[in-house]
Amino acid sequence: MALEVGSKAPDFEAKDQDGKLIKLSEFKGKKVVLYFYPKDNTPGCTAQACDLRDNYEALLNAGYVVLGISTDSEKSHQKFIEKHELPFPLIADEDKVVHEKYNTWREKNNYGRTYMGTVRTTFVIDEEGNIADIIEKVKTKEHSNQILN
Fold first, then answer.
1. How far apart (Å, rounded) are the C-alpha atoms in residues 149 and 147?
2. Residue 48, exposed/middle/buried by CB under 10 A (0-12, 13-18, 19+)?
3. Catalytic residues
4. Residue ranges per domain, the chain?
5. What is the Rg, in whole angstroms, of the alpha carbon atoms belonging to the chain?
6. How many helices (DSSP H) and strands (DSSP E) are in the chain?
7. Which tens digits make up the pLDDT trace of 43-73?
8. Thioredoxin domain location, by residue (predicted)?
9. Which fold does the domain 30-148 belong to in CATH?
């Protein structure tokens, strides 16, 4: 079932880069930017993470908590965070449970080859836990502007 603006954001529990359990429901009362991205240390994903890093203060000032999520391991996330000095947690969804809940693990097509992968999508979740916005056409180098505007 496709998620829509206004629908309840599916709750989840998953571990971040340090093995700390993160539950979406713990952020009730805060706005959450939950961004799904394909792979640590690839050009587009690095540009996106660094844009969020560079505009992190503005996002915090607007009341947002930022959570990145991919199917990479905790160890991969640790390296990505260290290399690019990312100030927000990255969730390791290796078993794709959260991806399935948000319908971001889908068939993709690249140069005529079809395969399963993460569809880069950002969910902006309001203080009540509802989806306020879904950004499917993510501009990796100006993603913060897409969220803040």
1. 6
2. buried
3. 45
4. 30-148
5. 14
6. 5, 9
7. 999 999 999 999 999 999 999 999 999 999 9
8. 3-149
9. Glutaredoxin (3.40.30)
The secondary element (H helix, E strand) that includes residue 76 is helix 74-84
For the record, the structure tokens of 104 come out as 């971001």
Cβ–Cβ under 8 Å, residues 36 and 70? yes
Residue 99: both structure tokens together: 């991806």
Tokens coding 95: 């078993």
Helix (H) or strand (E) holding 71: none
DSSP 72: S
- Per-residue pLDDT reduced to its tens digit, 78-116: 999 999 999 999 999 999 999 999 999 999 988 999 999
Sign of the alpha-carbon torsion through 116, 141, 30, 135: negative
